[in-house]
Amino acid sequence: MRYRGTLAGRITLVCLAVAGIAVIVAGFVAARLIRTTADNVLQTSLSAQADVVASQLDETGIGNRLGVGKVADVVRGQGISVVVRRAGGQPAGDAVSVQAAAKAGLGARRSERVVVAGSQYLVETRPVGTRGAAFALVLPARNAETTQRALVRNILFALGIGLLVAAAAGFASGRLLGRPLRRAAAAAGSLRAGRRDVRVPVEGPREVAEVAGSLNSLADALAHSEARQRDFLLSVSHELRTPLTAVTGFAEAIADGVASGDDAQRAGQTIQREAQRLERLVTDLLELARLGADEFRLDVTTLDLGALLRDCAEVWQLRCARENVQLQVFAPAGPVPVTADARRLHQVVDGLAENALRVTPAGAPMVFALSVSGSDACLSVRDGGPGLAPEDYPVAFERGVLNARYRDRRPVGSGIGLALVHGLVTRMGGALTAGPAPEGGAAFTITLPLAASTATVPIPRP
């Protein structure tokens, strides 16, 4: 696995890069500005000195070697050369300075930058008197280059200091920001190890605090989910144990010869009935497990929901009659086309009807009702039983919830039937809701969108 580095290290590198780029850019900009400023300052200073010299000299001073010598001595210490042209004479001074003064225009008041033999010079020329005398002050531009080299040294020094400060600041910031993330990583490791009581302090920057909050929410969700799974497993184990106990007991009675004749027949019937109960429970568990898998497929067609309801009612009419429960069916006369899997929809109605009949007392009604509302078809299975507490309707389709709450008070199923039918209806693009019924019990309503076409297929029997 490739090593990706720590957060502190990355922040340190980023701070170093930002500081380095900032210092280099600022240095280049400052170098250009200071170079231009230095040249202007030198030119202005040289111009001021030329004005001072011009105010001290006249044609007599130009002609007097002593006067010119004093001027030369004063400015020579600053690296400035003096070029003098007396009235009617030729410029006097070193050759390079004379050439620079000539290029600048000796005889007029000028401030120029000239190039002689590849070197730059700042030149200030001033006329003296009215008979053609003049002088020039010539300063090599090397001073500006010296200033620039000093600036580069200062920039490099500032760069070093800036990088050190950036490294320290980046490392400290990285450690500070990484601390809550390290705590979150440690908590995630504890969650992976099976602990569910770990929590991370929600602190630090907003993004880091969001990570901590999400991890705490994940821990809560895992704890809740595992608690529900434990309750569900307890419920399923209870449902499995009851028929297994009956099957084992009667099988032993037959094997030991205790049950014979009519008793053996009744024992065999009991074993068969409990085995079928176990088969239904195992089938429901497998269906519920497959429901969330990608390979679960539906055979979706356009069917007549009214015909499916009447077909289901024909089967349940006999079962209700045996329990002295009156089955009432309300459905439109015409077809109600919907798009669904006919076999799975039959399974849903049968599951809801089985739950309803289980809690409906003798003499109370059970109702199949189909209606059309706008672009939806609504199929309800209602009972006249005791119903559910208001707070139980929202959680009616959660696995094992109703089983855990009501198994000590009334007949209950395995705890997975309602979860299964809810999953099936949802996979078919419909909705399943629970609420109180007008008959006094509970009502479970399937809502499916009406199909665009009225062509339907035969309803297969379960």
TrEMBL record:
Keywords, alphabetical: ATP-binding, Cell membrane, Hydrolase, Kinase, Magnesium, Manganese, Membrane, Nucleotide-binding, Phosphoprotein, Protein phosphatase, Stress response, Transferase, Transmembrane, Transmembrane helix, Two-component regulatory system, Virulence
Principal location listed in the UniProt entry: membrane
TM stretches of this protein: 12-34, 155-173
InterPro entries tied to this protein: 2C_sensor_his_kinase, HAMP_dom, HATPase_C_sf, HATPase_dom, His_kinase_dom, HisK_dim/P_dom, HisK_dim/P_sf, Sig_transdc_His_kin-like_C
SUPFAM superfamilies: ATPase domain of HSP90 chaperone/DNA topoisomerase II/histidine kinase, HAMP domain-like, Homodimeric domain of signal transducing histidine kinase
CDD domains: HAMP, HATPase, HisKA
Protein name: Signal transduction histidine-protein kinase/phosphatase MprB
Localisation: Cell membrane
Top enzyme category: transferase
Superkingdom as given in the UniProt entry: Bacteria
Organism in which the protein naturally occurs: Amycolatopsis heterodermiae
Molecular function per GO: kinase activity
